[in-house]
């Protein structure tokens, strides 16, 4: 299950028709690629097929470009889109935070120890508080304050950093700002947020306080791709913890921190290993 | 934790002031009652105190009436309301069902084996399907069909049965009818419903289908007292199970059955053992 | 995920070499069989490959025997063993019980409602207690008492019933007898037991009492194939529940019942849907 | 549930006799101490009573010494031992580690953010690797290598540091050394270890590898007080995660890290808040 250092990933999706598995696995066989992990899902309601293969080329002559071109021809017959990911790929990422540091601290630990194959390009915050944490990990920290008046400009600065660094992934690690529709659109499918409730319950501000008011016996966290509908983007992962009447709002906040960290880290790990597929506002996640 | 066959329960609540614990425990000591289990909670936001004691009288001379009268005087000073429950008390109950039998089957098993100290007075359904299940357990079954036109009359019949049998508790074990406001009011605080979602998410009809549409990664069930606000009554217990993209609505329905049974049984158990306190639209539950 | 009523299952295993996936999926394509669910696992430590496909023949001309024979030739090249399971297959089973009825009650409910595609041939017990439960489900009940002197004879009677009824699966639903080595051998790979602990912790008798003595904070249950080593057979599924100091042994027994039922039912469901593979004393389980 | 900054803790235990609750709560009432949280447990098998009260003195005249002396007289009648803990108490602690940094990193985060009221006096390791982590938190780091020959001497050095710093608690945060019997004895009841398995399963070395061999479907971690019997000390907390056949030993190691961190942090939190009572080789834990 742990990804080997020498395996490639092929992730693909297409409409459901006869032969979708075969077109992938036959090609891998022909190319002398040994499949080390294989997942597929045929969505009979969405009539959509998803497949992910980890494989190890058995011939020294394996060539990325010719594999890519060769498979393109086969995939085209099925209307299949695909992505090929080389071994040891580290995904460039920008992290957005505000003042709360628990998710950032957790992500940086996993980054530092190689648990998450990230190449963190920048940490951006609307507050100065977390700079020293970034510094200790030798990461650039941009303090970009935000006010109603400067919001558009601040977002442009954020987008510039994302573009300049070539980051493929944006992580909102408890970034307490609502992104503008334009920003959401530009980051569609490549920005992951952690919301501190079991969505669709308790959207918006202060979800733990909402949970307290409602008297729920479980609280949780939801990692999802952002889209233009606040806290409504496609869900990648959710975590949950039991609570009771004795948990005041601040206890829910405290208890929730660990779930938020774990849920966000899990979602990012899935994304980085190309285990997540987006289609029609929902995700297919070949988790582990 | 398991209740002994010879223990009484004293459950009480009052405003938060100095001496609330002492007034209870001192009286028990004076009455030579040995406390076998004690739970209390002082709600500093609601400024309300809750206490539950299981105790065993050590003197043969223990007398329920004099205990009751003696404690009433003490409790009055604190504005404390309380309930005294004798050993081996079985609570009279009426169960409402429709066609789905999983919760009923589960409850009847726990009833038959003594896991739930219920005295089931009647099973009422708007469908005839579950009569044989009731019969096998030697329980009266009332088939009271319901149409928009007969709803008021049917509810009157249901209420008559509840009243005639002296049932203290009404269990809605997947009863697929919305109760009228009048019915909700009359059953306030003594009717427990199981809703097949993690409330407040997915209220109303077909919650598993809603959950599928939303693409959640967790589904659950919520046991709550009914009130006049559909699926908004005070929550007693919640259960949860992980799911993924491969769970179609009918899979969620199937997976949810076990959680519904367990969550409803847990809530009823808490209610019967006087572990649940209602205050201000929320519950305090001294669970185990 | 829920199995369609018109899908076949192909389950196979063989040594790990290039082309193991391809040999299966190519054949299915050639036979115009549409794959609705596909799972595979290549065990790089055990150097063993496992695959399970659910598929729907798209041609009316689909013929079981010719599929079987055709695939046998392909499989032979890979040293692959396989099993083909037709739609709507119900597996013949014999259930062994003693006095505790919770697992039996749960299984019979799932059997009656079609949740488990079982064809229960007989219920055998060393006690008479559960006969009425069997009767209500119109199932034959054999009361075969056991003493140290009659153990061999009783086991022969049990084996006779299994053989006479053609049962493929034997379920030990809290059967409180240690099977003889001969019995274990004869039932190798087709008898599932539920043990009321998280194996390998607390093997043998009275595991909840052992758990209490040890002061654990979690209890659980383990469903496993029986083998000749008491409570050491290959594990199929495990379930767990948190407990605390206030749970006396009888509370653990009570709390454990639900986990035992759920864990056993889950393991049987996996087995019946050919999701479990046995190899080298371990299982591969393509769960859901 | 979250401890207020102005509350004291009274934790006590004694033999089970009539009046044990009353002697505590009556005294608190007389001293005008408002109980904000109360937990008690009467162990009917061990015939032992445990109580923990958080309280807030309502009079300015509250005096620790006179409270202590006054309660000592009352407690003596019941053979009750007790401990009084002032508000804002931070417990002095020494942390032992080897090379693995996940638990240390997690503890230091919770220490830095005040989630765990620790006063970390020193970090001691038999390896130099984690010094920079200690430095970033401005904590002294002692690299005390260990060989079979120097084990006794190294332990003496460790004990000296514990004694010199006045540390009340020793945390073994994945310290991969077996402590000598003398060391265990000296640290009895005040050293918490995290073992990476669900004890009593998989004691000793390489528990995840043992778990892989056994093919379990759940792995976990156990936080316990050390005693002279390897991995057999009284359990404080346990955590668990589901796994499957696709988890190789290194995957179990990776997956287990989060559970280890959470379980150790939970146990330490309970210990620091005086929620853990030791008696007869078992714990009573008034968790939250």
UniProtKB/TrEMBL annotation, chains A, B, C, D:
It is an enzyme of class 3 (hydrolase). Gene3D superfamilies: 3.30.70.260, Formyl transferase, N-terminal domain (3.40.50.170). Residues 94-267 form the Formyl transferase N-terminal domain. Pathway: Purine metabolism; IMP biosynthesis via de novo pathway; formate from 10-formyl-5,6,7,8-tetrahydrofolate: step 1/1. It comes from Vreelandella nanhaiensis. GO terms for molecular function: formyltetrahydrofolate deformylase activity. The lineage of its organism: Bacteria, Pseudomonadati, Pseudomonadota, Gammaproteobacteria, Oceanospirillales. Its EC number is 3.5.1.10. PANTHER family: FORMYLTETRAHYDROFOLATE DEFORMYLASE (PTHR42706), FORMYLTETRAHYDROFOLATE DEFORMYLASE 2, MITOCHONDRIAL (PTHR42706:SF1). It catalyses: (6R)-10-formyltetrahydrofolate + H2O = (6S)-5,6,7,8-tetrahydrofolate + formate + H(+). The gene is purU. This is Formyltetrahydrofolate deformylase.
């Amino acid at each position: 299950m742990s990804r080997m250092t020498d395996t490639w990933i092929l992730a693909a999706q297409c409409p459901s028709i006869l032969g979708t598995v075969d077109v992938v696995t036959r090609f891998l066989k022909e190319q002398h690629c040994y499949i080390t992990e294989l997942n597929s899902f045929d969505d009979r309601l969405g009539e959509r097929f998803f497949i992910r293969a980890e494989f190890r080329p058995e011939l020294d002559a394996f060539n990325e470009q010719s594999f890519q071109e060769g498979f393109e021809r086969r995939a085209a017959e099925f209307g299949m889109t695909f992505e090929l990911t080389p071994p040891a790929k580290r995904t460039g990422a920008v992290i957005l935070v505000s003042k709360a540091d628990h998710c950032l601290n957790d992500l940086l630990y996993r980054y530092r120890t190689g648990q998450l194959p990230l190449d963190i390009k920048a940490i951006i915050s609307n507050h100065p508080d977390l700079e020293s944490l970034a510094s200790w990990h030798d990461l650039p920290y941009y303090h970009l304050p935000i006010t109603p008046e400067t919001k558009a400009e601040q977002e442009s600065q954020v987008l510039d950093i994302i573009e300049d660094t070539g980051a493929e992934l944006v992580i909102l690690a408890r970034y307490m700002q609502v992104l503008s529709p334009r920003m959401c659109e530009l980051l569609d499918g490549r920005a992951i947020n952690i919301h501190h409730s079991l969505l669709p319950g308790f959207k918006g501000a202060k979800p733990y306080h909402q949970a307290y008011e409602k008297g729920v016996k479980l609280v949780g966290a939801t990692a999802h791709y952002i889209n233009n509908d606040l806290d409504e983007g496609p869900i990648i992962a959710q975590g949950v913890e039991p609570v009771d009447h004795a948990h005041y709002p601040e206890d829910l906040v405290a208890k929730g921190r660990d779930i938020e960290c774990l849920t966000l880290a899990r979602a990012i790990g899935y994304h980085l290993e190309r285990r997540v597929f987006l289609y029609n506002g929902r995700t297919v996640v070949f988790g582990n």
